[in-house]
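Researcher: Structure for this, please.
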Amino acid sequence: MNRFKMTLAAGLTLLLAGCFGSEQSWNAKEIDGLMPELAFTLTRSDGETVTADNYQGQVRLLFFGFTNCPDVCPTTMARLSQAIKAMPDELQDEVTPLFVSVDPQRDTPEKLGDYVSFFNDRTVGLTGDEAALRDLAKRYRTTFGYDEPDDRGNYNVSHSSAVYVFDGQGEARLLLRPDLSAEQITQDLTQLARDQRS
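Model: Predicted structure, token format:
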């Protein structure tokens, strides 16, 4: 009986070591060392000029889009909001989504503020002139473009649907793909926020 208990204990120890080992498992794509640290100087929806340092210590989610986007942007914003709200209460305040509008001609700071607040009161709306936006997009190996306006002056903006996740030190950590569920995103953000506390 004692030998059985010892064998059982040894087996449980190995099992727990496998569950709580140092190797982290992410649902999102790991991009450690593949992207530069978070850096920008942009205009916030309240008209203030801000940099990445304004949100130092936060897990930051960087996403490019525009307020007239018919599908990708609202879907992504809703999924991120749902994922953050499902995190433990004490960790939600450690996550800040950064929605960067690449349509400065139409997305005034006021319009941008109304848009982001609809999804999550923690989401920060940012924009800038086209040159600054193109530099930022290029920094993270993406781009955006404008379609020809129609007779009413309306046009679509092509942009990436990826969401870049940076830790509190501004290091690039994860790339959230469109196929990830809100639950999977919650798991990753919770783990990253907890890692920062340890």
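Researcher: Any notable elements?
Model: Residues 33 and 166 are 11 Å apart (CA to CA). The longest helix spans residues 2-19.
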